[in-house]
Amino acid sequence: HSDGGADRPGSRCARDVDKEDGGRTETRPEKSARDESDPNQSKIPSLMDSSDSDRGLLSPQDIDLGDQCFPKPKCNPDARFRSTDGGCNNLIFPVWGQSNTASTRIVQADYSDGRDEPRKAASGRDLPNARHVRTTLFKDMDRPAPKHNLYVMQFGQMIAHDTELTISKTSSNGKALACCNPDGSAPEVLPKECLKIMTPKDDPDSKNRCLSTQRASDTADIGCQIKPVRKRIGVTSFIDASLLYGSDDKTARSLRTFTNGRLRSQVGEDGNSYLPNVKNSTQSCNVAKDNTVCYVSGDLRVNQHPDMSVQTISMLRLHNTLCDQLKIINPTWNDERIYQEARRLLIAMYQHVTYNEFVPILLGKDYSRANKLLPLKEGYDLNYNQFLNPTTFTSFTAAAFRSLHSYIQGFIDLVSEARSVTSKMRLSDFYIRTDIVQRKDNYDSFLRGLLTQHAQGQDQFFTEEVSEYLFRIPNKTMGLDLVSIDIERGRDFGLPSYNTYRKLCGLREAKTFDDLTDQIDKKNVDVLANLYENVNDIDYYPAGLLEKPKPGAILGHTFQCIIGEMFFRWKFGDRFYYEFGNQTGTFSSDQLKEIRKTTLALITCMTSNIQTVQRNAFDVPSKCNQLVTCKSIPKLNLDAWKEE
Ligand code: HEM
Ligand SMILES: [Ca+2]
């Protein structure tokens, strides 16, 4: 394949707007794309005309219905730092975004019994088998993203883990619930707390293979009788690095050294620092010995695969580096002060990369700008909105954001400083086995791989490493199917059908299958018409994935709209968002100026031994995005943190 048009040898490189001239030059590579006529410019729901009540937005009372299931925390309105569990971020609705509460919705749930039973077809029959939908529509094809690297995937997964953790249902005696037999076969009768993902009977390859997993725990499981149920959420909703620091005080304390603000770490053979080891590796990782390397951090998914660990270790090193620098600048600061200041700065840097570099890739730069998602170039943003609920909502987490599972590569490159691939790692050989991360210089090689290897494209193809071999254990040939889980998870979460999201996002309601061809290729519409009885039956996740990407974006209309809405709420609904003025957590204007220098390239250089990096660290290196030395990447001057 070839790279994106602007990168062709001989063509002039488009000037990089944000990182080189402060955004004042308006010559953008997407300009021609933007000019293509798009009759349905999508807007995020929060910015749409609120008099258009037919779109199905949940009423304000319904939005915080879940709050009544949880005690209100007592708040200190003057606190300068975020709480660990996210509570009290909103001083009127202090439960919003707090961990161990419930996720919210923006449209009404669709459960067949109005309470918690998965949706049915309009006819009253069962919806099509999720595995059948998956194998029909979402096969494996090597179609790399033209320009974006695997870091886009990895950074996205970090945000996913930062903002949502589904809690699994347990059996009625509170014990862990097994949905499949130990040998991987399907039980005679599936427990009712399990997702109904069956292998079709006529599928010879997967006879009696069990693809089920637990349903998500909800408010009824903790004795709160609201209807429809809300799904529980195990982490803080905010983009606040809870995956590094923890989402509750006990976890947060267990990760600290209580000396000079630093987080606990272990030193690898190469003399660099890594996340600390979990006590019994065999319980948390798929390894034979208790002392094998296997990590702990603020989120228990840290060992899901090596790149997830690498990403979290990068955050750990950033925190500890900031602590060391702040200590030198302010020698009198105690442990608590350094910890909180470093945490606050790290979150600000991470939010800046998120809104300045990551969000425009997903949603398109023009769309991001038009919907107020891009950071300001200077000065404070004064648009904190205390009535905007930042709690992670279900259509985002159970459908739209998961579509990035399409970006996953099945074989992960380890790459040398000269940018040659030194080895390829099969993803399913390393699920929950991260002990290779700190062998030799693998950490740097994984990181260079994230920077250099193309992601898979955002399309209807998924690597079988996730759709056939998810969590495959060594020596076993089969695994789970993440895409079937995603489809069935949407039903578990009570997501209404695709048509609801079309309306919400300003598209015409489809009365017939043919009406879908405004967003979805006719060929795929025909497949949908074969799978589903009625146009109102179609699940949101598969249909959203089939939508044609919007100009300059990697997502189609309704995923752009839903993901846009979520990032809008995480920004304007987060009182501690780094650009806000007039808040208790506001940075000084000198500090804000420094924070805005942050780039993913800088963070990468600060947290590794990599010598060279491309400036646009979410794009593969190319003629227009050449490797430069880390020394030449602009740095933050922390003198702005010196206290008189
Ligand atoms: C190798 C990479 C990845 C693997 C192996 C992976 C695997 C998984 C698994 C096993 C789940 C739980 C599924 C369920 O039971 O419902 C999940 C959930 C999820 N994933 Fe991924 N994922 C990866 C990357 C990503 C990326 C790149 C994104 C987005 C940018 C993402 C977004 C999500 C979201 C939002 C959830 C729901 C979280 C929750 O509800 O707890 N994942 N993923
Ligand atoms: Ca969080």
UniProtKB/TrEMBL annotation:
Record carries keyword Lipid biosynthesis: no
Comp. bias regions, Polar residues: 39-50
Residues binding heme b, per UniProt: 405
Domain of life: Eukaryota
UniProt keyword annotation of Coiled coil present: no
Keyword vocabulary terms for this entry: Glycoprotein, Heme, Iron, Metal-binding, Oxidoreductase, Peroxidase, Secreted, Signal
Region (Disordered): 4-70
Subcellular location field: Secreted
Predominant localisation class: secreted
GO biological process, one term: response to oxidative stress
PROSITE patterns assigned: PEROXIDASE_3
Annotated protein name in UniProt: Peroxidase
Organism: Sipha flava
